[in-house]
Each structure stands twice: as C-alpha cells, then as structure tokens.
Design brief:
Radius of gyration: 19 Å
CATH topology of the largest domain: Quinone Oxidoreductase, Chain A, domain 1
Shape: globular
Number of helices: 10
CATH architecture of the largest domain: Alpha-Beta Complex
Largest sheet: 7 strands, mixed
Order of helices and strands: EEEHEEEHEEEEHHEHEHEEHEHEHEHE
Distance between the termini: 12 Å
Number of domains: 2
Structural class: alpha/beta
Strand content: 25-35%
C-alpha cells in the first residue's frame, strides 16, 4: 500500500505492507485525512518522530472481529490505552502511561491507504455528515474538551488567541455553547469565519478583564499574551503545542492567582453531535485537497502562512 513517511524532517511516500490487525483491532481504509499543526511540528522535530504520521481521518472498516463494523464509515480516538490502569478505569485512557498514539507515538498513522485501530476506539459517522466534515471530528473534539474541563456559563466572556484551524473550531464550539467570544487574530479571511459564527474580533489588548482566555495561537508568545488578558482568579486554557521552550514571568500568575490549565484531546461524541446538528461550519476551513501520492506537496501547502486545513484523499 502507499503510505506517507516522515524521517529527518523530510516527507515522502513509499510502498509498505498492508498492516495486519491483531485481535480486537479493525483494518480501516482511509478515505480522507487532515494535516494539522501537530503534524507540522512533527516534521520540525517534535517527539523526534519517524514513521507514518496522521491522526485526523475518516475511513471505512474493511475487516474487524465485530462483523457489524465492516463496511461502516468511522473516525477513531487516537490514544491506544492499556485498559487496565487507574486512568483507563475512569475513562481517561488518553492519560494512560503506557498508551501509544496514532501517528504520533509508536503507532503508524492515518496518512496511508490502510491503518489499524482498536475497535473500541472507533466511532460511527452518521450518513448525513460528509467525509470532508467528518475528518474534523478529532480536532473538534479537542475544542469540546475545554467545556469538559472548565464550567463556562452561558454568556461568559472568553478571549481566544489564534485564528488558525484549532482556534476557529474552538471559537465555533464556544459560541455554540453560548459564550461571548472575543477572538484575537491577524488574518482577515479567517476572522470572517469567526465573525460569521458570532464572535467579536479584536486586534488590540483589552486589558486583564476576561474570566477565561484560550491560547490557540501556536506561538511561544501566546501564553504570555493570555496571562495579560485574563483577570485575577481567571483561567488560561493552553491549547498550543509548539516545538520550543516558552519563558513566562510567573509573578503575575501567582499574584493574580491565575489558573493555567493544559487541554489536549477530547471525547469524540460531543464533536459528532455538533457536526450532526450543523452547529459548526468546517467546510469553509478547507484550503486545499491533495491525493495521498502528493503528500509532500500537501505538507508544503499546509505550512504556508494563512493556509487552513489541507486534506489528503485516499485512493478508493
């Protein structure tokens, strides 16, 4: 099968064997996959990654122990957990100490004609959600995770730093929840998507007045800016994963009793519900599409400033 391979910061394609799913795993034919900022960070050296990347996908199950799954369109939770530890016991397998992660940590990813995942990780996609929408489930779930971690009352003011792919999904998720979102960004065409969703747009600091600030800037400066925007005893939700150290003056964090909250993956069910209800617009976030064989060009396009989601399409 054809697969994308990343090594020494280079992206190429090569022919590899179709993976053989062990018991309890499904073999999935990739239909559409999405390149995200984490994939670009892997290319820059994050995790010293080498292998098949990709974790945002929608596919068709072609083989599984559970025959009811065969032929179904699915997306997949990316963390492969042990199932036995204390985190797994409470449904937090994404924090399992022995987990592997699709396309990131010790499990070949979705940028290939076929991939494998545990059947327990798979979620069915309703017929009226298109492939191009379903491929956003994983990052949209990361946006929904904010509302799992923090009680944001309807009408609450939230500042959002970053108008990239994840930032726009977070914006739409919070607006759909009923929050008053002010987004800080630099790209007029992206900010229009946020405005159409119902967010306010700002390019200048409004002072430390927000009870919640989400940093999805993807930059080292984002966290520092977030601390300046949050009010005393407010919460900064940190969504950016970048391949460099971030320096931060902790004095205002301590003096103002600010909560710094890391936020990563989320459950897929809320994301699928948002898409099914038409409460988020992901189609306007698709910048380009490439066949899997043209993955190097797709990565180059995804890395260009101002580009939103770049998709890779499977062969069949």
């Amino acid at each position: 099968m054809l697969a994308v391979f990343m090594d020494s910061k280079q992206v190429s394609t090569r022919e590899v064997e179709v993976p053989r799913p062990p018991p309890g795993y499904a073999l999935i034919r990739m239909r559409v996959a999405g390149i995200c900022n984490t994939d670009l960070e892997l290319q820059r050296g994050y995790y010293r990654f080498s292998g098949i990347p990709g974790h945002e996908f929608v596919g068709t199950v072609v083989a599984a122990d559970a025959s009811a799954l065969v032929g179904k369109r699915v997306v997949g939770e990316i963390n492969l957990a042990c199932g036995d530890c204390s985190f797994c016991a409470v449904g937090l397998g994404r924090h399992c100490a022995s987990r592997t992660v699709l396309g990131i940590v010790k499990h070949p990813g979705a940028f290939a004609e076929y991939l494998t995942l545990p059947e327990a990780n798979l979620r069915l996609i309703p017929d009226h959600i298109t492939d191009e929408e379903a491929v956003f489930v994983e990052p949209l779930a990361a946006a929904c995770e904010i509302l799992e971690q923090v009680e944001v009352a309807r009408g609450s003011e939230v500042a959002l730093l970053g108008d990239g792919k994840l930032g726009l999904l977070i914006c739409q998720t919070l607006v759909a929840h009923g929050a008053q979102v002010t987004i800080f960004g630099r790209h007029a065409e992206k900010l229009r998507i946020a405005q159409q969703a119902g967010a306010l747009v700002s390019t200048a600091s409004d002072g430390a007045r927000f009870p919640f600030v989400v940093d999805a800037s993807g930059s080292a400066d984002g966290l520092r800016q977030a601390v300046k925007l949050v009010r005393p005893r407010g919460t900064v939700i940190m969504k950016s994963t970048i391949h460099e150290a971030v320096s931060l003056d902790m004095a205002p964090v301590i003096v103002n009793e600010i909560t710094l909250l890391g936020s990563r993956c989320g459950r897929f069910e809320p994301a699928i519900e948002l898409l099914a209800a038409g409460k988020v617009d992901v189609r306007s976030m698709i910048s380009a599409e490439f066949p899997l064989a043209e993955a190097p060009a797709a990565f180059a396009e995804a890395a260009r400033p101002g580009v939103l989601k770049v998709l890779l399409r499977g062969a069949g």
